[in-house]
Amino acid sequence: MAFRYGEYHDGPDPLAPPYDVRSALDEMGDAILSGSTPVHALRDLLKRGLPGAQDRRGLDDMLREVRRRRRDLRERGRLDGTLERARALLDKAIGQERAELFPDPSDDARLREAGLDALPEDTASAIQELSTYDWRSAAARQTFEELRDLLRREVLDSQFKGLRDALANPDPQAMERIRQMMSDLNDLLDKDARGEHTQADFDDFMSKYGDLFPEKPRNLDELVDILARRAAATQRMLASMTPRQREELSNLINQTLDQAGLSDQMRRLGEALYARRPDLAWNAPERLTGEEPLAMGDAVTALEELADLTQLETALRQDYPGARLDDIDEAAVRRALGRSAVDDLEALKRIERELEEQGYLLRRRGKLELTPKAVRRLGETALRRVFSTLDAGRRGDHDQHDAGSAGELTGSSRPWRFGDEQPLDVVRTLVNGVRSGGVALGDRVGVRLSVDDFEVAETERRSAAAVCLLVDLSYSMALRGTWAAAKQTALALQALVASKFPQDAVQIIGFSNYARVLQPDELAGLDWDMVQGTNLHHALLIAGRHLDRHPDFEPVVLVVTDGEPTAHLMRNGRSAFEWPPSHETLELTLAEVDKMTRRRATINVFMLAADDRLKEFVDEVARRNGGRVFSPSAERLGEYVVSDFLRLRRAR
Hints:
Among the domains are: 21-76 and 310-370, no CATH class; 81-149, no CATH class; 411-459, no CATH class; 465-651, 3-Layer(aba) Sandwich (Rossmann fold), CATH 3.40.50.410. The protein contains 24 helices and 15 strands. It has helices spanning 21-32, 38-48, 59-74, 81-101, 107-117, 123-130, 138-159, 163-166, 172-193, 199-209, 220-239, 243-260, 263-276, 296-317, 330-337, 339-357, 372-387, 426-436, 475-479, 483-500, 536-548, 583-598, 612-625, 637-651, and strands at 361-364, 367-370, 399-400, 408-415, 438-441, 444-447, 455-462, 465-472, 505-511, 515-518, 554-561, 567-569, 575-577, 602-607, 629-630. The radius of gyration is 41 Å and the shape is elongated. Residues 393-415 are annotated as: Disordered.
């Protein structure tokens, strides 16, 4: 046996490693953490293409190629090439006939010349009158037959792609086969309309006439699609001409079909195709700007491709409600951009499909949402981004190794010391005793233990904390461009507590005109509130309840805001807004600050604006509570919050 090795060209590399769908989620996460929605983040990812897959095109790359193809097609030529060629052949035949008649002095020759002079200006009408003319010139008769053959080929090629070559040297039997094919095709469509069509009927039809359909359709639906798109392109070609050109060419088409005995069959076929595919742009004009005259079949092919490219461009843009990659017709992609583009599209579909199947994305009532699993992943990404800016020496945990039996086992042991309360490591203790030497007890061997043989299991005690992160959701956060940083910070802190300090009780509270507890799975898709009011009073009330539910936990309160309090919660539960802040709003808010102080909760405020009133308010909070005030840039907010949280936990 002989083997030949070479580069693989039949589709994507079968040995290539599978694309890591988590990388796609991380790529989306950059947009989501910057304030984008999941659906827009996914759409942008698919447009750019897969990160790290340079050999794969994104939707934007395909869209640029489609637009280039459309531009080239529009500049390819003019639509009236067949009409121009028909006029030229007609004029040539008339000129050859006149040259034959001119030397003849007979009255018959003059009468014939008068008839030629009286021919209509319309090409189709002139050809109709000359169809019964008895040509004196053999050259003129041959030219006129060439004209009729041209029209027959072009008209049929405009309806059935590929018949122009099949009829290059027509004979009566070839035309009779075309007529029989048309009749059988119409019968097949009628049978399908009655619900009696089977695949066997189609296979029998293709066994007889398959050579007339170079597209090789596999079933009747594919054949109808091919013929309908071609017929619609013919109608668009006529609609794109001037009224005079349209009338002349329509007359030529009808006249040619009548002479070929195909008029009735073509009318039946056109009606059936339109009834099945009314969605096609049957009469939409199209503009071609080229200089080269195109034959009728070539013009129809160009318009057919333009229609495909127009629909494909719309699908590739993915900018309409409910857009999905499944809307993109792979057959249209293959026709327009080739097999490799189909592989690239399938790779994009696989990413979209895998994100859903692996539990990162969820479609609910037509809306794309992130799952809790995806939110955890984005939180980890945000946390890695924060830690990448921190010095390694500042990333300490808050473990204590001097603790008693309530601690967590570390998996290691150490020699027992007086006062240790850690559990005894029995196995290591006995092993130490055996190594020291056994003691004979009659017929048995015992183990004598000394103080030095005892080992205890090492533990660490982790202090639990009740963490409250209060995040401003007011409209000003979006106006100042700080909202995305605040959301990213909340995700990072949530991920840090969940991964490093699972014993901590964290609660994230968003506040605008009202405050509310934010669940972890809604953080990524969270958006700012387009309302007036910064109700820190309500947020501190909710945070206080969280701390009261965990009285033995260390209280940690972090506030992220860009404005002083402008709203408070009234006794009836409604929000009262006033700007500049009213005395009552400030008084009630500071009262909650005092309650936090009595709970031993330090409030650290991260100030995202430099307003004088905000500075005055946070300075008063720091004076009453003893907490600290930070004024980070939006880009460094996550670093400040996370590092301050770690500092507080280590200090505790």
